[in-house]
Amino acid sequence: MNTVTSENRREKAVLVGLCSPPEIPRSLVEEYLDELAFLADTAGADTVESFIQDKKLRDPAYCIGKGKVEELVLFVKEKEIDLVIFDDDLSPAQARNLEKSLECKVIDRTGLILQIFAIRAQSAQAKMQVELAQLEYMLPRLSGQWTHLSKQKGGIGNKGPGETQIETDRRLVRNRIALLKKKLREVSLQHDTQTRGRQTVPRVSLVGYTNAGKSTLMNALCPEAEAFAENRLFATLDTKTRRLELNINKLVLLSDTVGFIRKLPHTLVESFKSTLDEVLQADFLLHVIDISHPGFEDQMQIVRDTLKEIGVGHDNIIDVFNKIDALEDPSILRTMSEKYPDAVFISARRGLNLSLLKEMIGQQVARDYSERKISVHVSNYKLITWLYEHTEVIDKRHVDEEVELTFRVRKNELKHIDALINSSQTLIDDAANP
User: Fold this and answer.
1) Is 209 marked as binding a ligand?
2) Is 348 annotated for ligand binding?
3) 210 a known binding residue?
4) Are residue 418 and residue 273 in the same domain, yes or no?
5) Range of the domain at 157
6) Where Mg(2+) is bound, by residue (predicted)?
């Protein structure tokens, strides 16, 4: 079963949102629908109209009121609409009832995001992750696929052939889900093996709201990265890691990761755990923020909440406000500079303040290093060679038969170095006292 598909034809779409002032004001829903229109455009649909209904409680059958459903029915027929997209999640029953009334496709925000991920998936791993999320989203909705058969009642227990087909399909989907999870665990183990050698090098991950400019920044800092970047949501699904040379004779590994978004489907978060592991294993994060977006502070909070959800417990994060060249009001930059004094303000597209950003990365990396001084016997060439290969030796002096080495090393390597020193010292003592 392959659920990853894409359509080339542009569809005509209608967007639907619910507001319940004062908790969810109409202005906020309008902002959400603007983002939903951007999502629809990314998926290949043109938004014709948006509908907003004031409703405290959702209708259990249609989500919106029956009057609004009737209004939508007339509009859909008149404008020959292909697709109705709800900003809020629909239950399987609500989706079926709406499709029956509107006589067109009906999906919710989660379904739309899953479709975009399906279009964007390029690598085998990303395709498996997307398919897993799609199947888990589809599983509780399968009952609507066979309603034409379930009407044929059987004898004992009224178990008709429709229900038999549903159970068969559910079993196939569950088997496929189990297989995909197994394959993704194997991919994750392979990834851990491949990245084990990187542990001696500081790792930095780019995180942020989708379309904040992470891939553009990746290309600006590491020109050889060739990360795919365009003005579309979720342009990047696969993690890309490149070397970044700093001015302090240090090297870091910089990774670009999938963007976050409001109401990011939980099934996607779970499916992309192996990709998001890059974020969990990073020594610190660069939180890229689109300062030109009117709701950028809300987006910042969404990213922070998502980071907590995937298990990021530290606060080793540098806020990077991007797209300062797109600001129409320069006072915003002054205000945000005062509000976020430890942040850096850049334009990845124009290369503004990138040297300052690299300097801040260098300062963050330097905090992770410690300076040590040891005395080693000249015959212990293995330890001396290892220190030159795995640390930054900044001073060397000969005192009689001893070599005094001063070096900088990552703090997480200190225990390993102490073990090497103790081991080598034991070998020397054993040799001296046979």
Assistant:
1) yes
2) yes
3) yes
4) no
5) 121-195
6) 215, 236
